[in-house]
Hints:
Layout: H1 4-7, H2 35-76, E1 81-95, E2 100-114, E3 120-121, E4 127-128, E5 150-152, E6 155-157, E7 168-169, E8 178-179, E9 182-193, E10 196-204, E11 208-210, E12 232-237, E13 240-242, E14 249-255, E15 262-271, E16 274-286, E17 292-300, E18 308-312, E19 319-324, E20 335-339, E21 344-347
Antiparallel strand pairs: 1-2, 3-4, 5-6, 7-14, 8-13, 9-10, 10-11, 11-12, 12-18, 13-15, 14-15, 15-16, 16-17, 17-20, 18-19, 20-21
Bound molecules: 2-acetamido-2-deoxy-beta-D-glucopyranose (4 copies).
Amino acid sequence: MIDIERLDPSSYNPDQTFSISDDQWISVTNNGLSKRVTILIRVCVATGIVVFLISLLVPIFCFNGKSRSTTTTTTTTSTTATTVTTTSTTSTSSTSTSTTSTSTTTTTTTTTVSCAPGYSATPAAKCVDTLSNFYSCGSIAYVCSSNYTICSAGVCKIAPDIQLSKPTAIPEWAGMPIDDSIQQVTLSVNITLYNYSTNIVTVSSNGVLCLSSCSSAYANEDLPTASVGGPTAFGFWDDLKIYSGTAQAVYYGTSGIAPNRITTFEYYTSNYASPINYYHFQIIFYENLPNIVKYVYFEIFDGGASATIGVQQSSSGPSITYSVNQAYAVAYNTTLLFNTNKGTMIRLN
Ligand SMILES: *[C@@H]1O[C@H](CO)[C@@H](O)[C@H](O)[C@H]1NC(C)=O
Ligand SMILES: *[C@@H]1O[C@H](CO)[C@@H](O)[C@H](O)[C@H]1NC(C)=O
Ligand SMILES: *[C@@H]1O[C@H](CO)[C@@H](O)[C@H](O)[C@H]1NC(C)=O
Ligand SMILES: *[C@@H]1O[C@H](CO)[C@@H](O)[C@H](O)[C@H]1NC(C)=O
């Protein structure tokens, strides 16, 4: 370091000449450090820049790596899960006679939604069945135009298609609005549940088929239920309605040749409060597979959120429950098989 005091001419006799050797001069930009120290600092600065750049790049590479693995996860489980980021804002405000304070908390959380079979996650973390969702028909966020009322098998349609090739509508219900009704139907072949065989079936408009005593109750319950007495198929026990002036009905028909005949009941109904919120499904019995009943679902607007699905032998059981008031329980094409002899159930679709 240079001693300023020693160089100050004012502390000398102004007339006196003095000399300062060259190496005592410092340039304005020189900080007075030795050359060696300067080199050391340059090396340190260079090293610092490299470390800084690495510290910036490493997280970027790590993040990219994570992104790639997230993409892979999304791809492998694309029909069942997605990851989205939601932001929620909470504001709190308190006032007293002397002070007013307002606090705002913003929380950002990552939500992962897992969708039930048959459902896909939207970017907004909702689960939709693209085979029957009007607002995601055929693919996520494809909205059917106002010319249509439903999405069926992933295609926008004006109304559901009746699936039975030779459907017979329950004649007593034709042309009338039907709500909370039961009607007896005589079949050309017996159907069997829990070893109970009959060709007389009582159809409830609320999604229930009774092989013995029946009920028109719309309020679904857990199984076994005292609402009905004998062997019963609860294909979709909910508050269903048949609107007049539409093709809505409960259809039935038997196809094939003995001993391999198939008897199908097709409910083409809607919600008690809306004629275009459909509940469309089939209940199928096979002559050569006694004690087995199959349920196949098509357009089920709420996926089973207020329905009971299952079978029971009597008001005190035994019974097999698939779902009770479970949203997303069924999707378009969901197929359930109940074996009332073994007390087992399988889902095929
Ligand atoms: C809806 O139907 C009208 C009348 O048939 C037709 O002109 C229009 O192009 C249709 N719109 C869509 C989006 O299909
Ligand atoms: C419904 O399932 C059946 C098989 O059970 C399949 O042949 C058909 O293609 C499915 N329909 C749709 C629209 O996925
Ligand atoms: C068919 O059902 C009737 C009652 O509806 C019953 O009397 C008859 O025994 C059944 N037939 C067979 C083969 O189980
Ligand atoms: C139905 O009958 C068969 C043959 O008699 C018997 O083995 C089976 O346990 C019965 N199943 C039920 C649910 O009663």
